[in-house]
Every structure is written in structure tokens, then in C-alpha cells.
Specification:
It is a single chain. By secondary structure, the chain is α+β, with helices and mostly antiparallel strands. It folds into two domains: about 35-90, Winged helix-like DNA-binding domain superfamily/Winged helix DNA-binding domain (Arc Repressor Mutant, subunit A, Orthogonal Bundle); about 100-270, Beta-Lactamase, CATH 3.30.450.40. It has helices at about 25-35, 45-50, 55-70, 85-95, 100-115, 155-165, 170-180, 185-205, 245-270; strands at about 70-75, 80-85, 120-125, 130-135, 150, 205-210, 215-225, 230-240. A six-stranded antiparallel beta sheet has the order 5-4-3-8-7-6, sandwiched between helices. α2 (about 45-50) crosses α3 (about 55-70), α5 packs antiparallel against α9 (about 245-270) and α6 (about 155-165) crosses α8 (about 185-205). The two termini are about 15 Å apart. The mean pLDDT is about 90.
């Protein structure tokens, strides 16, 4: 139920930039749009060049093109760009056509209330997980996250669940990509957490992030794989350390999160 073996050929979303049909210009344009993470409103060409590693002349051409198409807006007073309404329309179309969020929401709210934690649904986007839905269960401990926010892949329960579900070949390629992006001094700890989470997924059916992303937060995550193996989503349950003890995660909250995943999968018939 949304938790298949990892050996399907189509269960592979690693980017192959050497593929003859891969268009670098499109990839670079989307890399620019991804620079505008949650909380980042305006960026100049120099900011974008630094974040993407692209030459500034290339960035200038692409930002001009994206602003001409309505995906960026240029502020002459700031000499910087912001996301345009073209991006909003794409996001709105995605959410309107994504029935899995509407189906999962009431079940997520129920689990959030029971666990007094935040229950989230997310999808991978490069080296980040993008939140599709967030249900808060503890009014006194609100995680400042909302749909559209991006969180790290390797240190969160959401990202680890996504990675744990991948075939070994894809998993190892992604590890190599993470290593290139990670600070060298932090990589051994990050890698150990990702590898351990993959083993935890085998043992328990879900992954842990016990203070790895936020020292005050313990979390578990579980992947949900579409029936045609073309897409992976991830659910998590995260809350304050005093509530989310490891024992409670293993014996109670973890199995309930797996049951939620299975129910959503059944209700969507694995099509999402």
C-alpha cells in the first residue's frame, strides 16, 4: 500500500543531464525560480548567480526572459526580481488538480490532534522537500511552516522517507549529489543519518529525525509511492521532544502514520 519494493525501473527520478533530450536552458531557468524559497522575496542577478553557480551573464538573460513571460517581476527601485503571477497560476493549477491533498487533509488533521504534533505532506524538489499540506495539532507549539515552504532533504523525516523508498542505485546517486552540496565538515553526520534512516525504514516501516534538523523536534516520516511508481510523496509527524519520545514514536505514532499513508493510498487507488 504505497510502500512497494525499491526495484522498479520507473521508480527513478534522478536527473540525467547527459540525456540527449535534456535541455540545459530549461533546467537553468527552473534553478533560478527555485532560488526564491519561502521567505525570500527579492533577489538580484548577483544573488541568483551566487545561489545557482551560473555565470552572471547567463542569469541576466534568463531573468529577463522569465520576467518577460510573467514568471518574475523586476523592481527598478530595488534592481531585483520577485516571483510573478505566472508562478502563482502554476501553483494554483497544481493544487486544484491534486486530489491527494484534499483526501489526506482530514486524516492528517485527526492524527495531528491525536499526537499533538504537526503532520505534513511533501514532495521532493531537487535537494529540498516542498510542503503540500501542514496540519498543526498543538496550539502552544506551532511549527512556522506552511504549504509551499521548502525543508532540507537529508536531515528531515520527510526527506529521509523519500530517500529510503528509492532503489539503491538512485539512492547512491542522490547521496553523491547531497555530498557535493553539503559543507564538508557536516557531511559525515548528515550521511550517517540518511543511511540509518534507510535501515530504520526496513526495520520499522518509517524513518526518524530525532533532533537532526531542529534540536527541539523529533519526527517520523513515511513514503507513499504511486501505483505506477512515477511519484513519491512523504508524510511526517513532528513535534516537541517532550511529547515525541522515541518509545511513543515506535509503539504508537509511527504505526498510526503508516496507517494514515495506507488509507490515503487506498482512497486514491494509488493514483496521485
Amino acid at each position: 500500500m504505497g510502500n512497494p519494493k525499491r526495484d522498479a525501473d520507473t521508480f527513478n527520478h534522478a536527473v540525467d543531464e547527459n540525456h540527449p533530450q535534456f535541455v540545459n536552458a530549461v533546467s537553468r531557468a527552473f534553478a533560478i525560480l527555485r532560488c526564491f524559497e519561502h521567505g525570500t522575496q527579492h533577489l538580484g542577478n548577483q544573488d541568483i548567480a551566487r545561489r545557482t553557480g551560473l555565470p552572471k551573464p547567463t542569469v541576466s538573460r534568463l531573468t529577463f526572459t522569465l520576467s518577460s513571460l510573467g514568471y518574475l517581476v523586476y523592481s527598478s527601485s530595488l534592481e531585483k526580481y520577485a516571483l510573478g503571477t505566472g508562478v502563482l497560476s502554476l501553483g494554483h493549477a497544481f493544487m486544484k488538480g491534486n486530489d491527494v491533498v484534499a483526501i489526506a487533509r482530514p486524516l492528517m488533521r485527526e492524527l495531528a490532534d491525536y499526537t499533538q504534533s504537526a503532520v505534513m505532506l511533501a514532495s521532493a524538489d531537487g535537494l529540498r522537500m516542498v510542503l503540500l499540506e501542514v496540519c498543526q495539532g498543538d496550539a502552544t507549539f506551532q511549527m512556522k511552516l506552511e504549504p509551499g515552504a521548502r525543508v532540507p532533504h537529508g536531515s528531515t523525516a520527510l526527506g529521509r522517507a523519500d530517500l529510503a523508498s528509492r532503489p539503491l542505485e538512485v539512492f547512491e546517486r542522490q547521496l553523491a549529489e547531497f555530498e557535493r552540496e553539503c559543507e564538508p565538515g557536516l557531511w559525515p553526520h548528515v550521511r550517517a543519518g540518511i543511511v540509518r534512516a534507510r535501515q530504520d525504514y526496513e526495520n520499522y516501516g518509517f524513518c526518524f529525525s530525532l533532533g537532526d534538523w531542529n534540536p527541539d523536534v523529533f519526527a517520523i516520516g513515511v513514503p507513499m509511492v504511486s501505483a505506477d511508481r512515477s511519484r513519491v510523496l512523504a508524510f511526517n509527524c513532528s513535534g516537541r521532544v517532550s511529547v515525541m519520545t522515541r518509545e511513543k514514536l515506535v509503539q504508537d505514532f509511527g504505526p498510526k502514520l503508516v496507517a494514515l499513508r495506507n488509507k490515503v493510498y487506498d482512497m486514491t487507488e494509488g493514483r496521485f
